[in-house]
Amino acid sequence: MTLDDILASFFPEGHDVRNDHGVLLGSGRLKLGGRAVVIGIADRTAVGVEEAIRLSRHVLNAIEHGGDDPILVLVDSDSQRMSKRDELLGLNEYLAHLAKCLIYADIHGHPTVGLLYGHTAAGAFLATALATRVLVALPGAAPEVMDLPSMSKVTKLSIDVLKGKAKSTPVFAPGLDNLAQTGAVLATWDEKTSLAEQLKALLDHTQNSGDQRDRLGRIRNGRPKAAGIAERVHDLALKSD
Fold it and tell me: Would you say 137 and 188 are in contact if contact means Cβ atoms under 8 Å apart?
């Protein structure tokens, strides 16, 4: 699906979402009433300081406006922008700020839903799609937290060794199927079915559920230990109080 097709399917009653040099900002009328705030990255744009702060501002505006409008995060990005300028300006802090804005919005009544419809990687992936309460994808989406050549440089393991590990351990492997197995991606939606209807069903289902990704990873055997460790840390924190 093209971006225009996606927006039309989400908002058959109209929207004002605009693509400004790869940055998506706006809102759309939900089929069954109300509006959804929309932010995102299009055209495989790299996320630098300017993109991150504009997206953050739009999220904060939604919080300041009040209400309980959901925030839809559409993602087709490159990685974070690989430039000395952005790094010197503190790109890591801008990306962290964007992620925290989304998490804060979700906690304060604006359910956040990420939709992967293209590529995404690295810091841009972490600060947008993975910062939402729940993440879904369309067929053909190509997410990767880190590609294997970059992973090889960091871990000092050969590409062949990493490819072998990727066959049995999804956390080592890029791609939609592997991220779904880890629990990062809840589901791949049917692009031939109304996205508006699928969004409504998702919001109804996840209304009071919170972040379930660690539990999904355990159920799907992609991250079998994450949920248990998180539960132990939570219990220890309560005991220390």
Answer: yes
